[in-house]
Recover the amino acids of this structure.
């Protein structure tokens, strides 16, 4: 067991990792920008190191500063958290070559899965269906037009080396391909320093479903069920739940078997998710996130598993405390992401409690929410025996939640949870646009 670990991140995920480490007897080192000096993760860690000014490009994204902070404080391992450098193969390589343990898969695996063109080929090799599209990256208009000869419109242009909605363009008419291809390539280059794009069939209003994976790198791979992440805006998730109302037992089995084979062959180590688009009774591989996900607490509730603990064990010792035989999935869990709509000082914070309620956050009374980083400030997660009861519990928990001093999306989350379409379980990724924004004048 390692004795000391640096968390190369901030906010609620840093707090989450610190909590797991405290239970494991691992000393923690936090890093912070000057804007985060009074942040909760800094207060909770055993020690903390400032790694730069507020801008992430000069602090949380500076590889050398993070690695030096770990080495100078005597850490044996580094946890990248989510976002920032968590899926950077170059960062994972630099961490490993410095003599530290990277809490994540091998950098070659990260590089392979981070390339969506290569990832699609890998998934196909293991029998997972992929969305019809170009086998390789598309470099020009003529190649794009040739692809349209076999692909039905609409299609979507995607960045090969990125995600999060960047470098993505939907094309509904053939005469729009040239302009959108140019924009997608430009966005991909600007955001990922990789201008390669590919084209695939665009699926209207699919379900977005992902499997939670834990793997020790030595052949043991465990699937902790699936999560439904279909409630999203501009490809940014707002609500996640498990199990998915859209996944049948047969579909779940095929998804799981393909994922198990793929992660075993890759000798994947740590936590990860494999994501799919679901259309009626058919599913298609989309991508792998080679890290822990923001929404991992949903799977922790239904599987009674500490995913961060197992991730650290897998990456530091090659062993996990869990296996498929001692995992039983039960009940239903829902997570609402609480996003800040403005920066500011928290003047009042009252968090919900009671059975089956969890509040993951870096907020505390009197803290300041800076304007420089991701807008998510908290995650409210509930668990109950059935989906209907989990929805009722979430409604109650949202009613109890009080955050003053900043504007948040709490009211929107309440409207979603109360919406009859959401409660029916029959919706897709256009739910927000079709059922919420269209009823509110597009706001």
């Amino acid at each position: 067991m390692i004795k000391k670990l640096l968390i190369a991140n901030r906010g609620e995920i840093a707090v989450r990792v610190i909590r797991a480490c405290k239970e494991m007897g691992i000393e923690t080192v936090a890093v912070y920008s000057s804007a985060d000096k009074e942040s909760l993760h800094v207060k909770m860690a055993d020690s903390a190191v400032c790694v730069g000014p507020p801008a992430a490009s000069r602090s949380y994204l500076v590889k050398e500063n993070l690695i030096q902070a770990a080495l100078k404080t005597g850490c044996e391992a580094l946890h990248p958290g989510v976002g920032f450098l968590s899926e950077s193969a170059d960062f994972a390589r630099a961490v490993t070559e410095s003599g530290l343990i990277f809490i994540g898969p091998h950098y070659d695996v990260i590089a392979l899965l981070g390339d969506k063109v290569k990832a699609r080929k890998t998934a196909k090799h293991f029998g997972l269906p992929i969305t019809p599209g170009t086998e390789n990256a598309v470099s020009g208009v003529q190649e794009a037009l040739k692809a349209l000869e076999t692909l039905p419109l609409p299609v979507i242009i995607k960045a090969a080396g990125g995600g999060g909605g960047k470098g993505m363009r939907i094309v509904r008419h053939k005469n729009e391909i040239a302009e959108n291809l140019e924009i997608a390539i430009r966005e991909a280059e600007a955001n990922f320093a990789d201008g390669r794009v590919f084209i695939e069939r665009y699926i209207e209003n699919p379900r977005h479903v992902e499997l939670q994976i834990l793997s020790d790198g030595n052949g043991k791979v465990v699937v902790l069920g699936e999560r439904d992440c279909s409630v999203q805006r501009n490809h940014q998730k707002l609500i996640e739940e498990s199990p998915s109302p859209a996944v049948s037992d047969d579909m779940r089995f095929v998804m799981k078997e393909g994922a198990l084979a793929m992660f075993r062959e890759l000798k994947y180590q740590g936590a990860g998710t494999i994501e799919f688009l679901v259309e009626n009774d058919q599913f298609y591989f989309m991508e792998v996130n080679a890290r822990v996900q923001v929404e991992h607490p949903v799977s922790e509730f239904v599987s009674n598993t500490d995913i961060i603990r197992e991730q650290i064990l897998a990456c530091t010792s090659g062993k996990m405390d869990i296996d498929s035989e001692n995992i039983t999935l039960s009940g239903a869990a829902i997570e609402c992401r609480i996003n800040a709509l403005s920066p500011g000082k928290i003047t009042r914070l009252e968090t919900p409690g009671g059975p089956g309620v969890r509040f993951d956050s870096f907020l505390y009374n009197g803290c300041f929410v800076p304007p420089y980083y991701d807008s998510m400030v908290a995650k409210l997660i509930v668990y109950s025996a059935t989906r209907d009861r989990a929805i009722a519990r979430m409604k109650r928990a949202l009613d109890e939640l009080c955050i003053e001093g900043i504007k948040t999306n709490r009211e929107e989350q309440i409207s979603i949870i109360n919406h009859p379409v959401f409660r029916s379980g029959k919706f897709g990724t256009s739910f927000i646009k079709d059922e919420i924004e269209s009823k509110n004048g597009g706001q």
